[in-house]
Amino acid sequence: MWNISLVTETLRLCISVFFFMTGYRLTARGKPALRTVLARMAVALGAYWAIFLPWLFWLRHAGLSDIGRATILREMLTLGDSVVPFAGYVGCYIAGLLLVWLFARVPQPHPAFSVWLYVAAPVTVLGVLRYYAASPVIVRAIDNLLLGVCVLGAGCAAARSGPPARVDAALMKRRPAARRCMLCAAALPALAGHFLLPRVTLGSLQLAGDRIGFVLDLDMLYVPVLLYAAARLLRAPGAQAGTVRARREMAGAYFGREITDAVKGVALIMMFAHHFFTFPEWYEPGISYPELAGFAEVFRLPLSICVPVFAFLTGYFFALRPRTLRGSLRKIADVLTTYWAILLPLFALAAACGAPLRPGEFAGELLALESEVMRFNWYICFYIIAMLMLPLLGRLPHGHMPAALAVFIVLPVFAATAVKACAPYGSYPAVAAQDVLDGVCSLGAGYVTAAFSLYPAGFDAVLGKRTGRRAAYLCRCALLCAAAFLGRTYAPRVIIALPWGGESWQLRVSMDMIYAPAFVYGLANLLAACPARAVMRALGEIGRYSLHMWLLSCAFFNVGKAVCQPVLYAPRLPLLVLLWGLLLCYAAARLIDVPIRALLRL
Predict the structure, then answer these.
(1) For the residues of 365-404, what is the DSSP string, one character each?
(2) What is the torsion angle, in degrees rounded to the nearest 10, for the CA atoms of residue 21, residue 22, residue 26 and residue 27?
(3) pLDDT of amino acid 99
(4) Are 113 and 153 in contact (CB under 8 A)?
(5) How far is residue 351's CA from residue 214's CA, in Å, rounded to a whole number?
(6) What is the dihedral of CA 353, 380, 269, 238, to 10 degrees?
(7) Residues 211 and 205: beta-carbon distance below 8 Å
């Protein structure tokens, strides 16, 4: 049985890392301005209320909870957690920002003084206040502060003391293998300490006849060690060359690498929400979300726009940097290497779970023609066909937009429809033709959009990007994304009946060739205007590992889901399930990316 405390402690480790990095970044830039601190507080409260208010409305509407006005007020001030479980961390974050701003004004001549100022002094004062506090509300507020003030203060003190230059110098003298062993030897005990010894009561203070104990969160020691080890272990030797190559590939693009990764990150989050909550028939016995039945019915189609987004970006960047057939084969080899590196452990896991796997299924899974283990691998088959098809279609004349639409959309749709009609139902050619029909319209739309510069020449002019009214323009971008959602809900495709040989062929043209460009354009401009850099970095990290995370998520819905699915849905609450699934897949993706990079360098 899966232990729920393990999930809780893992989430708490992520929150501790966030607190540490917040204190570190605020202090490393000098004295944080009050305006910066207030802006961060406003963003945190706004995000919290955006989750709290709809959730409260749903609870009251469903009659699942009777919450009074006093409780609602306390919850809105982050002094309670009966509605939103992580409200205490929000209150700790807000109060911690004020402490950081206040303590940054105090002269700190020595790093030891910084540790006392940012960690020891707040814990001592808060411990005394909590001991003598009579009001439960005050006790609750102090508890919220004690949740993360140690880790936040440790981040501030680390920024004041500067990077560990001596440790870096000692590590650089070692060989790479010895260096990695030393870093792992430091990181593993810190990780184990977080789960086995999370906090300690340190001494006692004799005050007016009372003995007061002080609780220290030991994440203030574990998190710096983990972050330092991770930063040094994940620093790839060829990172600079890869960055130069990526910049070269992005030349001429409407949006840069950061926005592209963020768009992919949003698309992957939508994909996870789509798979996790809109297919109740995939749940194992004992897992159910009847309250999300309406959500599953309404959002099943619009959330699946994530796949057209990836297909659109594939065609878009192929047009910016056209590849030969040899270059396409190299891209296919890279994707298949990643696919196989994830398939092998998932296949072994499914077999270990007692899944009834036939010997011939492994060969089919290798070519993405079977989907018992890699449940969502149909896009691999489509990607291979697309990368073989695009160099050939690029040789056909397409100097004008109607010709380009005919070459990259109409011609593949006709060919795939013909193959599907002639091939036996359920055969590999028929399945591959259906995969092409599902994604080729978005793929062709991406190619045409880049080849004819439709974003700067068309969308910008129509939506008035350069008129100077930025707020109005961003509202139009949001409406464009909403229109793509609604269009995919009510008009996902157009069916054209064509008479041929005494029969009527149905030509199914996906309207994603319109929705995908509109959605990507609106989302990219909204993300470019996002002031929260931490959110952008998180989305960028998800986007960079989107292929790995998407393939790894197959473990929750394949033939071995009886073992893996309870792990995913252990947090119970849908929002926590989504975050937990992202965290699991991201951690596994970073882990498995190390051997994949080694294979790709061969």
Answers:
(1) HHTT---SSSTTTHHHHHHHHHHHHHHHHHTS---SHHHH
(2) -50
(3) 81
(4) no
(5) 50
(6) 100
(7) yes
Q: Is the pLDDT of residue 39 over 80?
A: yes
Is residue 333 within 8 Å of 519, Cβ to Cβ?
no
Would you place residue 244 in the very low, low, confident or very high pLDDT band (cuts 50, 70, 90)?
very low
Rounded to whole angstroms, what are the CA distances from 417 to 402, 411, 412, 495, 545? 21, 10, 8, 12, 33
CB contact at 8 A, 153 and 120: no
- Classify each residue of 397-420 as buried b or exposed e, where b means 16 or more C-beta atoms within 10 Å of its C-beta: ebeeeeebbebbbebbbeebbebb
Quote the strand ranges of 229-311, DSSP E: none
φ/ψ of 369, rounded to 5, equals -100, -15
List, in sequence order, every residue forming a beta bridge with 503; answer none if it has no partner: 500
Rounded distance, CA 464 to CA 110, Å? 54
CA pair distance 146, 125, nearest whole angstrom = 11
Mean pLDDT across the stretch 235-260? 56
pLDDT digits (tens, 9 = 90+) for 531-540: 888 899 999 9
Residue with tokens 């070459």: 407
Q: 275 Cβ partners below 8 Å, 6+ apart?
A: 282, 376, 553, 556, 557
Give the number of other Cβ atoms within 10 Å of residue 98's Cβ.
13
130-189 pLDDT, tens digit per residue, is: 777 767 767 777 776 776 788 888 888 888 776 666 677 777 777 777 777 787 888 888
> Whose structure tokens read 């069916």?
495
- Between vectors from CA 434 to CA 432 and to CA 438, what angle results, nearest 5°? 115
Instruction: Count CB-CB contacts under 10 A for residue 86.
Output: 19
Which one, of 561, 595, 564, lies nearest residue 341 by Cα? 595
Strands annotated E in 208-270 = 210-217
- Euclidean distance between CA atoms 519 and 307, whole angstroms: 12
Contact (Cβ atoms closer than 8 angstroms) between residue 464 and residue 476? yes
Q: What is the SS3 assignment for 1?
A: coil
Number of Cβ within 10 Å of residue 356's Cβ equals 9
